[in-house]
Design goal:
By secondary structure, the chain is of the alpha/beta class. It is 33% helix and 21% strand. The protein has helices at residues 15-20, 46-53, 76-86, 102-107, 119-125, 141-153, 171-188; strands at residues 3-10, 27-30, 35-39, 60-66, 69-70, 87-90, 159-163, 191-196, 207-210. The protein is globular.
């Protein structure tokens, strides 16, 4: 999936952030199947960028093209298809349903990625197998992050976007999560965009962008 940003500036955003950014107000090309790390301090627009690519925000000037087509021209059906079959995302706020169990949250998908490991395999790899029948509201933030990662990997995608997915994980759990993400992304022949506050996760990247 080829992504092209052409002079995009979110509204509102301080001019000093635009001036120092490698993204805002610039032309940027993210090649299909590439792995991109976006790093910046809090408040610089990491979540904003991912939300724009995912089609959740339209309050910006400039153009964003996906495979040569401006996303402003996407119909409702095209967005639905893009999110259902071609993209998957872990949001910073995770967007899990607190009244459902961890397993129910993972299984609450319109489409399933048949190339990914099973739910059981992934929960064992991330050390949350004992949490499956627990309500999300009873889990720690780190456990919730791992459940959100598993849910995202269970979806079909050619582009995976992760918004600070390791912020509440220790080094060992970051390592296990990174290995699983790398395995599934490679199996899907997919692209990856990951945002971070600055520390580089245990993943390999083709491109490092500072906001």
């Amino acid at each position: 999936m080829l992504i092209e940003l052409k002079n995009i500036i979110p509204e509102p955003i301080p001019k000093k952030i635009v001036k120092s950014s490698e993204v805002w107000g610039r032309n940027l090309r993210i090649e299909a199947n590439s792995r991109v790390l976006i790093s910046a301090q809090s408040g610089m627009g990491k979540s904003t960028l991912l939300h724009i690519i995912y089609g959740l925000r339209k309050d910006y000037s400039g153009k964003l093209l996906i495979n040569g087509k401006s996303i402003r021209e996407y119909s409702y059906e095209e967005w639905e298809n893009f999110r259902k079959k071609f993209s998957s995302m872990v949001f910073q706020d995770l967007r899990l349903f607190p009244h459902l169990t961890a397993k129910q949250n993972i299984e609450l998908l319109p489409e399933v990625n048949n190339t990914a490991p099973s739910i059981g395999e992934m929960t064992v790899k991330l050390g949350v197998e004992s949490c499956l029948e627990q309500s999300i509201s009873t889990l720690s933030h780190g456990q919730r992050q791992r459940i959100a990662i598993i849910r995202a990997l269970r979806k079909p995608f050619t582009l995976l976007m992760l918004d600070e997915p390791f912020s509440h994980l220790d080094e060992e759990n970051q390592k296990h999560a990174s290995q699983l993400i790398q395995e599934v992304v490679k199996g899907n022949a997919a692209g990856l965009i990951l945002s971070s506050l600055g520390s580089t996760p245990a993943l390999s990247f083709d491109q490092h962008i500072s906001l």
